[in-house]
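Hey, I'm writing a tutorial for new members on how sequence and structure tokens pair up, and I'd like a real worked example in the thread rather than a made-up one. If someone can provide the structure for the chain below, I'll link this post from the tutorial.
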Amino acid sequence: MGNGPLKVLGSVLVVQLLLGAALLTWAAQGFPLPSFLRGGESAPTVATAATSATTGAATKRPDRFDGERAFALLREQVERYGPRPAGSTASRRLAVRLRDQLPAGRFEAIPRHPGLRNVTGVLPGRRPAIVVGAHYDTEATVPGHVGANDGAAGTAAVVELSRALRRLPRAERPREIRFVLFDGEEEPKGSTDFYRDGLRGSRAYVDRHAQQVRELVLLDYIAEREGLRFPREAGSDPRLWAQLRAAARTVGTARLFPDEITGQILDDHTPFTEAGIPAIDLIDFDYPQRDSPEDNLDAVSEQSLDAVGETVYELIRRRAAR
């Protein structure tokens, strides 16, 4: 019985050591709450985590692109303006709204196409410039096409990128950055040749500005709710695409950009590549609701839009510093 106090003291020390080890383990895991306090377990999504290309670990993305605000603009285009074929009243009303959202926003008329106009903005700097673009018109040949993914998503991302990138100090973005929302990407009614009749805004922009542009990053189908994935489109510049994938690894979205190539797609980057300007097209063309009335708010997500926005922000941040 004379050893009783020593046994108690030994037990206390053991408990303290065990508690200390448990606390260290908990801290290393970021002090996670138990599932009954956080509503149960859920798998990481593109909104909160992505798989590291090198370790397979979940990594939290930086938060410089406001996905919530971008998605609000996507929603506004769909709900307030509805179908927005090139030259329509809805499209022209939307163009005014978009111009007011871009830095130094202005219209550029599209020659030989009365009523059509590109919407442009700029963060001044050294030329040749980087262009970040999307198209803001919707299908003219598909009744009821509101283009949540095909038009509204890319447009919303370009506007939000312009807002995020203007917060960068001028010393960190000496390269001029242009934001261009192309009109007339979709072919008009009665057309039988997309290449001949579509891409009206991007053709006009290249005709006018080719000598002032170093490269183009085009955003098209980027907010698909399910199965978002971007193999390199065959017409996209391999070196610039490699820079995009490097940016994705940095921000934790590498799994969206596999080391694969898909077929060439005619899109607003095509006039740029034909003019010898490096360009890439972020387009998940394997989109079940493509060119249909089902390309609506049910088919897109804020999380997908945010993941792409963060990736492109990182790419442009790096490219603008050169």
